[in-house]
């Protein structure tokens, strides 16, 4: 699918952290690893790339072409750090948003993550830092496995026989975002050869994401100064093999124009399976 012509108004040059291909098996622990075992494997290095202003073409973006899009979507949530309020108020808001944006028959939200780039806000809380390596959240192996993890077996197998997708909804908790924004890569510029499976090891299960090796073909975008009433929809997996975008590679990055006194980036991402 050919995307829209992109003016470079507001484009910046920034380092994005990519996997260096070495052939070693990739893994990362989401808990304290066994004694003597490193927290993660793999070698990652920054590559300087052009990151274009996605606001210039926001109205033309498509989940089925670029793999991501921007929407204005005010929320009634008062405190995104309150997990109970997020599940009670925000999950239904996200469900409605995703059904309107995709036409999915069923939206099944299964978790969310709060991120805050201030290290003191992460210690002892269910808050993470920014995900600052180029990646995609699901693979050909982990997407169907996650459906099986979440649904009763018979229902999961029935759902997997039809088209399904996983979409993340990313929102700043406070805005405008001045530091560590989100960069998104046009799905049409990512080759399957750029994707390397990497295990995510949890205490009770093992997931898998794609780490990504650098290619000069990659075309990157961001949405400067995102507000708390804006969201980005990120397609992290689509089972359809009809030419539409199937994944959306993304990463947090350091914007060289960030003011020295910029506040930390605070954000929430909600993950959902869409069944068609």
* CATH top level assignment: Mainly Beta
CATH architecture heading: Sandwich
What's the tally of helices? 3
Low-confidence regions = none
> What is the third-level CATH name, the topology?
Jelly Rolls
- How many strands? 15
Helix content: 10-25%
Radius of gyration: 18 Å
Distance between the termini: 21 Å
The neighbouring-strand order within the major sheet is 4-13-8-15-5-6
Mean pLDDT: 94
Largest sheet: number of strands, sense, barrel closure:
6 strands, mixed
User: Domains counted in the coordinates: how many?
Assistant: 1
Shape: globular
What's the order of the H and E elements? EEEEHEEEHHEEEEEEEE
Assess the beta-strand content as a share of residues: 25-35%
Q: Helices and strands: which structural class? A: mainly beta
């Amino acid at each position: 699918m050919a995307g829209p012509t992109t003016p470079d108004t507001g484009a910046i040059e920034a380092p994005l952290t990519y996997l260096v291909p070495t052939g070693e098996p990739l893994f990362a622990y989401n808990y304290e690893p066994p004694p003597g075992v490193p927290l993660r494997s793999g070698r990652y290095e920054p590559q300087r790339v052009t990151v274009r202003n996605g606001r210039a073409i926001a109205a033309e973006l498509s989940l089925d072409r670029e793999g991501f899009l921007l929407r204005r979507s005010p929320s009634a949530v008062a405190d995104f750090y309150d997990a109970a309020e997020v599940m009670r108020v925000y999950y239904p808001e996200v469900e409605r948003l995703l059904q309107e944006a995709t036409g999915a028959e069923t939206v099944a939200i299964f978790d969310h993550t709060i991120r805050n780039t201030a290290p003191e806000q992460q210690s002892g809380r269910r808050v993470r830092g920014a995900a600052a390596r180029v990646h995609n959240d699901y693979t050909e192996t982990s997407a169907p496995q996650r459906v099986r993890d979440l649904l009763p077996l018979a229902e999961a197998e029935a759902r997997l026989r039809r088209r399904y997708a996983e979409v993340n909804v990313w929102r700043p908790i406070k805005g405008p975002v001045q530091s560590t924004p989100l960069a998104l890569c046009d799905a049409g510029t990512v080759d399957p050869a750029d994707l390397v499976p990497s295990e995510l090891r949890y205490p009770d299960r093992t997931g898998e994401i794609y780490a990504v090796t650098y290619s000069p073909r990659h075309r990157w975008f961001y949405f400067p100064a995102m507000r708390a009433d804006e969201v980005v929809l990120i397609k992290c997996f689509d089972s359809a093999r009809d030419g539409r975008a199937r994944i959306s590679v993304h990463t947090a990055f350091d914007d060289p124009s960030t003011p020295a006194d910029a506040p930390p980036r605070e954000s929430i991402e909600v993950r959902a399976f869409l069944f068609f």
